[in-house]
Amino acid sequence: MEEEHVLVTGAAGFIGFHLCRRLLEEGRPVAGLDNLNPYYSVRLKEDRLAILAGYPRFSFHRLDLADRDGMGRLFAEGRFGVVVHLAAQAGVRYSLENPHAYVEANLAGFVNVLEGCRRGGVRHLVFASSSSVYGANTLMPFSVHHNVDHPVSLYAASKKANELMAHAYSHLFGLPCTGLRFFTVYGPWGRPDMALFLFTQAILEGRPIRVFNYGRMQRDFTYIDDIIEGVVRVMARPPAPDPAWRGDRPDPGSSYAPYRIYNIGNNRPVELDRFIAVIEEALGKKALREYLPLQAGDVPATYADVEDLAADVGFRPATPLETGIARFVSWYRSYYGV
What we know:
Structural class: alpha/beta
Strand content: 15-25%
Number of helices: 11
Helix content: 40-55%
Order of helices and strands: EHEHEHEHHEHEEHEEEHEEHEHH
């Protein structure tokens, strides 16, 4: 009998690359999908893919999620037991400039993934949501059992829509779906549009860094290895219907359908000023800080409640910020020859 493959969408992306590498190290056959869009450095994406290409059990498909025919062929020809859907148009602020990119990738593209899973007999769809879905919520820590109906960016709205779309397919077709709300992921091979990358680059080049919300921003920075450990554990545990779920008191975090939502975050928020101080320590160089107000679409704080994740898969992220940032800085210096 032919061995089941794992399909990872967004395989050239930050989280997708690390997940593929982990699965390949474990000897699992992995099909990676990516369109290598130029939202950030294509060279960085190609360098990640070059590492994955060194594994004999990796196959790569350059394909756009919104290509309905191409996605249909991929699922018809591939034998995917588990699909981990990480591809998306990312970024909160970019959604203010280019909203249509989010509709095409995150909505039309996600329908193509759901249809592929439904028609291809996929056993478990694990998909990336985001801490941004909590939007205007201020009750901390953010829990999957809280209502999330007040997004403050189109990116967040598209991620909330993904959760709703997945639930509909779970209800209609019995497709087991697990949504993962990632909290500010960082680490080696990270995205160049994220704060850690931008700050490291600017500090080393002697340029001022822009510090929003006057440094009082709080983020639940989560190290990439912790994210991957959470994803791998969730992959192995397709959700079952929750017998305790009630329609007269609907719990947003579970369902009568085979559908679950989890937070994956470090569950200890850090103030932006402290985050910058840790980067300065790792670089051995002080930052020039330009303090600015909160940006449109941003939220002042994020903080993950991970009790459901811990109870169901026995894991909670715990990598200290100092450890994770030191590893990123070491990678950055090596990759860019600084």
